[in-house]
Amino acid sequence: MDKHIPTTATVLNSLLRADLTTQWRNRRSFVLVLLVPVIILISWKGVIDKLGGAFALSSCITIGLVATGLMGYSNSIARDRDKGVFQRLRVAPMPSWCIMASRLIVQLLMITLLTVIVFIAGNNIDHITLSPTGYAITFFTAIIGGAVYLGLGQVVVGLIQNPETVNSTVRLIYFVFIIVGMFGEFGILGEQVKEMVKWSPYGTVKAVIAAGMLPETWNGDTTTSLFVTIGYAVLFSVIGIRKFKWNNK
Amino acid sequence: MNRNTYILSVEGLNVYYGTFHAVHDVSFNVLPGEIFGLLGPNGAGKTSTLSAIEGLLKPRSGSVIISGYDIREKPLHARAVIGVQLQATSFQPELTVSEILKLYAGVYGVELNKEKLQAILKEIKLEDAAGKKFGQLSGGQQQRVSLAISTMHNPKLVLLDEPTTGLDPQSRRQLWERMESMREQGHAVLLTTHSMEEAEAVCDRVAIIDHGRLIAIDTPQALIENNRTNPEVIKASRRGKITLEDVFIGLTGKAIRS
Predict the structure, then answer these.
(1) Does the distance separating the beta carbons of A92 and B109 come in below 8 Å?
(2) CA-CA distance, B52 to B99, in Å (whole number)?
(3) Tens digits of residue pLDDT in B149-182
(4) How far is CA A38 from the centre of its chain?
């Protein structure tokens, strides 16, 4: 007699419930992820008029995306791989992609939540408001931007096995992205660095998010940035998936 | 005997890690209602063999048929009839015992209502720990949860990778009783172990694997009888009486493995 094989929907539903519960129990780390964008919004309060609301919000969302994709995702994958959580799931009658799909859905929900919280904080702290179209497009561009950093996180866990090394590596990348990205963008580090930052994963994602907030400012450069962003997401995902090992033993 | 008569049939299995040949041409079968032990020193190839059976690693050659399903051709069908307890702790530490049971019920397609959940918790003597996080459980409690999950879908074959490592004598005895009760219900059990006492106590047949090769396969008693006059086994004997451990040491050598 054939044994019952559960449907993919049943499996995904169970995995999602467990992954969301795990995320909820680790909510403190998400609060820490939110802290940096909120601090930036508070500290830029006096210069919002000069910088522009879209610039401030897009910087904060981009930084939040880097933290979620790189630190949240990579660390949880590295830890669960080290504990053998994935191997235990992989011996069950389900396709392995379900395990990662569930994790990614949770991260996409976190990205959406992060975007909402930055909007609320931006409105309450700096009185920044966007048009309804601006809000709608930003959710879409934030998810595309998030895909870049989730892909980059996948590259890190693909190339590095040890969870402690993954943790220190993503912190270093996060730090570099924030410092070089923000200072480079302001031109403090010179014109060459400014140009490099513009076409880096930080710069293209931020450009797309900023232009999405003010659709009337979308131009040829933004479209190029969008294609480059998608290119980064695909490139990182391909490398990350190809190099990824379910077991670090 | 037809290969389909066996619950598990492993034929000519070869596993490589890069250029390292970890499992050499290993073949054995497990019958329904049999407890089969896979014994071997550290790094002998036990876990690699088990991983190939579970479909976690791809052998270079050979076949693994579980209840008529080839693990490489029909992995989901094959996995649906096996229950697995891995060597390492393998559940999210933030989830509670009942959340983990619910997760795996969904993953194995088992309907788990409140009564059934309570029955499982009662069976593993964790009724009071249902709301406890997995990371807060003792080693013995974690093993019981893991075993409950590996058998909750009523599998035909249960694979246990060193299940009693780190357990106290009471928990170990309890696990042996569970294995015996599984055998009585017609389930087959394949376990890897370092404990010769365990192999002698619960296994119907054992296979000794060393340097990736199967060097002996028989009932524990027959292995002792057949090697009674083996000079290496006699040399390994410590109390004049030949035990399975003496046979094991005699066949695999005294050198400590990595």
Answers:
(1) no
(2) 29
(3) 999 999 999 999 988 887 888 888 888 998 999 8
(4) 16
Nearest-CA distance from A173 to chain B in Å? Answer: 27
Task: Tell me the per-residue pLDDT of B68-120, one tens digit each, with 9 for 90 and over.
Answer: 999 999 999 999 999 999 877 689 999 999 999 999 999 999 999 999 999 99
- Residues of B with Cβ-Cβ distance to A22 under 8 angstroms: 92, 94-95
Interface test with A, best of B4, B103, B104, B134 (most A CBs within 10 A): B103
What 8-state DSSP symbol labels residue B96? Answer: B
- Which residues face B13 on adjacent strands? B26
User: With helix as H, strand as E and coil as C, how does chain A read?
Assistant: CCCCCCCHHHHHHHHHHHHHHHHHHCHHHHHHHHHHHHHHHHHCHHHHHHHCHHHHHHHHHHHHHHHHHHHHHHHHHHHHHHHCHHHHHHCCCCCCHHHHHHHHHHHHHHHHHHHHHHHHHHHHHHCCCCCHHHHHHHHHHHHHHHHHHHHHHHHHHHHCCCHHHHHHHHHHHHHHHHHHHHHHHHCCCCHHHHHHHHCCHHHHHHHHHHHHHCHHHCCHHHHHHHHHHHHHHHHHHHHHHHHCCCCCC
How far is the first Cα of chain A from the last one, in angstroms, to the nearest whole number?
Answer: 36
Q: With beta carbons under 8 A apart, name residues in chain B contacting A94.
A: 76, 107
Contact A6 B108 (CB under 8 A): yes
pLDDT digits (tens, 9 = 90+) for B193-238: 888 889 999 999 999 999 999 999 999 999 988 888 888 877 777 7
Coil, helix or strand at residue B117: helix
Residue ranges per domain, chain A?
A: 8-243
Three-class DSSP category at B47? helix
Which chain A positions have a beta carbon within 8 Å of B87's beta carbon? Answer: 84
pLDDT in tens, B15-32: 999 999 999 999 999 999
* A205 in Cβ contact with A145 (< 8 Å): yes
Q: Which of A3, A6, A85 sits opposite B107 (nearest CB)?
A: A6
Q: Name the interface residues of B facing A (CB cutoff 8 Å).
A: 54-56, 67, 76-77, 79-82, 84, 86-95, 99-100, 102-109, 153, 156
User: B88, A83: Cβ pair inside 8 Å?
Assistant: yes
Give me the interface pTM, i.e. the ipTM. 0.88
In chain B the first and final C-alpha atoms are separated, in Å, by 38
Which of B86, B93, B105 has its CB closest to that of A87?
Answer: B86
- The Cα of B55 is separated from the nearest Cα of chain A by a number of Å equal to 7
